[in-house]
Design a protein that fits this description.
Radius of gyration: 19 Å
Helix content: 25-40%
Strand content: 5-15%
Number of helices: 11
CATH architecture: Alpha-Beta Barrel
Number of domains: 1
Number of strands: 12
Strand order of the largest sheet: 3-4-7-8-9-10-11-12
Length: about 350
């Protein structure tokens, strides 16, 4: 895979070389990016990000995903999507390139009290008319006492099953959100007809232990690695990644920023935040009326931070960045059932 050169200063980067990357999980449609989405999109491309996925979590924001996708993918003025037919030399203005944006539709388990049967029905209708890249993020979450309540957890399982049914019907990969419910999620997945070995799928922002990591990979899912891996104190996560790779190879991983959450340590600038992950409390940092209200601009995660995740993973696994980047590209394509080149 070709190395991408950049005009940006090397001291802004985790290394002096950049590689083509896919950000498999973002919330780049969130209002926290409204003031500088164009700047961050251009910067992401300069830092090697060629594709990014806009991931849904509440039905009321689904339309916003498509609006953001249109903004990023439809050239205007001096913004171009680079294709084989793009005649850059003929352009009179400076060329601005953005990553290609794709959409995943899903009803997030953390917001289970807000989801309704009508939302499920409308989501199913959208799948027929506006086929997304994937279903997600979906799954189970017992992080809070409210989420553990029997009625809420039963509803989570119902919605998880219903959305897995949609994935099977439409032959789409799924993006899993599993937090403090790995055993329950594995049990549900094993009982369902969804087959990640055939349809693909990602265990987004994986947070389980070694055995759980291997169990999800064995089912056919790739493990989503975020900026958490840059934290040396995230020992459980780092051991889980190493254990999965020891058994299945680097073919079991994909990269993601989960922006604006999970800011890599090397990208944090606010005094007192170094050594912890800024805006890492997703999804409880998210609110319907004031999403990511704590994501100050200087510690808000952005797609351009993906090379820091690559660099940390390279060091953890003792695999050269270029080799790792090339395999991660293929892994992402496999997980999302695409053939991007």
């Amino acid at each position: 895979m070709a190395v991408i050169k950049t005009s940006l200063m090397d001291n802004e980067l985790p290394s002096s070389e950049l590689y083509r990357l896919i950000d498999t999980h973002t919330h780049f449609d969130a209002p926290v990016f409204d003031n500088d989405r164009n700047v961050q999109a251009e910067r992401a491309y300069q830092f090697g990000v060629r594709h990014l996925v806009l991931v849904g979590y509440l039905y009321q924001h689904f339309d916003r995903l498509y609006t953001t996708q249109d903004y990023l993918n439809k050239p205007s003025a001096n913004h171009y999507q680079l294709t084989s037919s793009t005649n850059i030399s003929a352009a009179s203005d400076p060329i601005v390139l953005y990553p290609q944006a794709h959409i995943a539709l899903g009803l997030h388990p953390f917001y289970i009290e807000q989801h309704t049967e009508t939302h499920l029905a409308k989501m199913a209708d959208m799948l027929d008319k506006q086929r997304p890249l994937a279903i997600g993020e979906i799954g189970l979450d017992t992080f809070t006492d409210a989420m553990k309540a029997p009625e809420n957890f039963a509803k989570q399982q119902q919605f998880f099953n219903a959305q897995l049914d949609m994935a099977v019907t439409h032959q789409l990969p799924v993006m899993l959100h599993i937090r403090k419910a790995h055993a329950e999620a594995l049990s549900l997945l094993k009982a369902h007809s969804y087959n990640a070995k055939n349809l693909g799928g990602i265990a987004h922002s994986f947070s389980g232990g070694e055995q759980e990591a291997k169990a999800f990979v064995k089912l056919g899912f790739k493990l989503g690695v975020t900026g958490q891996v840059t934290n040396p104190n995230a020992k459980k996560l780092r051991r889980a990644i190493q254990a999965a790779v020891a058994e299945f190879g680097i073919e079991c991983l994909v990269l993601e920023t989960d922006c604006p959450d999970m800011t890599p340590i090397g990208c944090q600038t606010k005094a007192g935040n170094i050594g912890s992950l800024a805006v890492s409390s997703s999804p409880q940092a998210q609110r319907v009326d004031k999403e990511w209200q704590r994501a100050e601009s200087h510690n808000r995660n952005v797609p351009a931070n993906l090379p820091w995740v690559l660099n940390a993973l390279s060091e953890l696994l003792a695999v050269e960045p270029q080799v790792l980047a090339q395999q991660l590209w293929q892994n992402s394509c496999d997980a999302l059932q695409t053939d991007w080149v």
